[in-house]
Amino acid sequence: MFSAILIEKTETGQTCALKQLDDSQLPEGDVTIDVQYSTINYKDGLAMTGSGPVVRRWPMVPGIDLVGTVSDSSYAEFKSGDVVLLNGWGVGEVHWGGLATKARLNGDWLIKLPSGFTGQQAMAIGTAGYTASLSVDALVKFGITPDQGTILVTGTPGGVGSVATALLKKAGYTVTASFGDESEKEYLTKLGASDFIHRDELSSPGKPLQKELWAGVIDSVGSHTLVNAIAQTKYRGAVTACGLAQGADLPGTVMPIILRGVSILGIDSVMCPKGPRMAAWDRLDKDLDRDLIAVIGAEVGLSEAMQAGADIVAGKIRGRVIVDVNR
Question: Do both 102 and 150 map to the same domain?
């Protein structure tokens, strides 16, 4: 038997509860894992609360991240005792995920835990931090350099924005971070932000072309926030887009794109191939201050995961939530 958060479909919606399940209920896969830690991402919150159409196969164990020890494997790359890491791949949507004490997964989806991290640290980073690293890599590869100006990071103090701020600072960039409450500024300053913009200044409809402020942008919010960020980006700058916390719509015009040559760089962390996935984790291993990981992450037990999911959807969570699934 193992413990798991299980989401089940009902005639009127869904239920979400902590349950004891039999090992025979685990889905198909060639690697079985004793899970150590998982996380709560925004997508997990949507799934557990039923606030968004995340779950596409029922019943479902949520949790798009996990780290744990291989207990059984028929996949050539992994053997019993290996510590492995999962981010994305539709887990928690179409395949049972990490908010459980056991998981069975496709070996192609896994990577070995980088030697520089503990399992707890890797989950403090999680998909959010790994997505942030992909976003920073995209700006660097595009050619945005620190001397070209300030980088705007939206969605702070959430997980993507928190890690992106820390990685950008380490790479030599000047960061302006969005915020919602004055109390968040101290936290964001510790991560590396040197200036701030209130999220309300970005979240309402704005002009198609605005004052050029940013050499680049890392956005995890979408909707009007993303549109305004694009409208404020300098000539031939770039904006990465990886989230939709405000909405999936893009209520803007092509004017910044065709008149200023602003590029929008889409960031997909779910199905990202192993090469860029490993490069993103290499950046995290090399550039993310281990002391900052403790600042970014807060820990809860498996029984507290559902409340944490509701809190993240309500915008009450700062940074990352780590789930110790064995308590």
Answer: no
